[in-house]
Specification:
Elements: H1 2-11, H2 19-32, H3 44-56, E1 68-72, H4 80-86, E2 91-96, H5 99-112, E3 117-121, H6 124-131, E4 135-141, H7 146-153, E5 157-167, H8 172-184, E6 187-196, E7 203-211, H9 223-228
Parallel strand pairs: 1-2, 1-4, 2-3, 4-5
Antiparallel strand pairs: 5-7, 6-7
Helix pairs in contact: 1-2, 1-3, 3-4, 7-8
Bound molecules: S-adenosylmethionine (SAM).
Residues 73-76, 78, 95-98, 101, 123-125, 141-143, 152, 223 line the site of S-adenosylmethionine.
């Protein structure tokens, strides 16, 4: 795993010495994965590429240095934990609706000595009530279809902030379906960046949505509504 991480980080222009703490986090996830469901990816090389380097690739899209960011639906900590390991001055909130995953993340961050990380057990649509318009960046991977995801993430962004939606490259139709939601929620499609996960040849995509005006107060709605009647 270390060799793949070092090569991948170098390809991304990042500090190859961060391979060690990234691997240490991987070991904690894989160890806990034996007793709870954290990830289906258990092969070392796949873990390095599909979790760690995929998360790291976000830094080629936007620099998290000095930013207040939230990872919505972080699960086992992706992309938020690798981003925090790679950007010591980023202030990162890891948000998930599953308490056991959040407990694991708190423990893991403590074991790794990572400060500047807040692991929060809450549903995004409820968390927004007290934390709307608070973050420079809301990032998210594999959580919900884009129209619903925008309703969970854009209310959390400050005006001038960004929502980074990590998607597969076959997401053109999903993006088309989300155009109305993006506009309604105060967003504007900024760009779509396809990238190759270093050392893998696998292509993924980041949809970058800028927050251009405050989200109307009635959003986000309760999740049942978001799901049943997507914007
Ligand atoms: N982002 C991680 C990744 O890419 O490996 C985890 C993806 S996992 C498929 C989706 C995660 O999103 C789950 O841990 C789930 O609990 C969380 N989730 C889904 N909807 C949510 C919501 N409305 N609020 C908070 N967490 C949510």
């Amino acid at each position: 795993m270390l060799d793949i991480l070092r090569r991948g980080l170098t390809e991304l222009g990042l500090d190859a010495a961060k391979a060690e703490p990234l691997e240490a986090f991987a070991r904690l996830v894989l160890e806990r994965n034996r007793v709870m469901n954290l990830t289906a990816i258990t092969d070392d090389a796949d873990f390095a590429r599909l979790h760690l380097l995929d998360s790291a690739a976000l830094l080629a899209v936007t620099d998290f240095d000095g930013k207040r960011a939230i990872d919505v639906g972080t699960g086992a900590g992706f992309p938020g934990v690798p981003l925090r390991i790679l950007r010591e001055r980023a202030d990162i909130t890891l948000l998930d609706g599953t308490g056991k995953r959040v407990d694991f993340l708190r423990e893991a961050c403590q074991t790794l000595g990572l400060s500047g990380v807040d692991a929060v057990h809450a549903r995004a649509e409820e968390y927004a009530a007290a934390h709307r318009e608070s973050f420079d960046i809301a990032a998210s991977r594999a959580v919900a279809p884009l129209p619903a995801l925008c309703e969970l993430c854009l209310p959390l962004d400050k005006t001038g902030g960004q929502h980074l939606a990590m998607k597969c490259v076959d997401s053109d139709a999903e993006l088309d379906n989300a155009k109305r939601a993006i506009e309604t929620l105060g967003g504007e499609l900024n760009r779509v960046e396809d990238y190759t996960i270093p050392t893998s040849g696998i292509k993924h995509r980041v949809i970058v949505i800028g927050k251009v005006k405050p989200t109307p107060k009635q959003y986000p709605r309760a999740y049942g509504q978001i799901k049943k009647k997507p914007l």
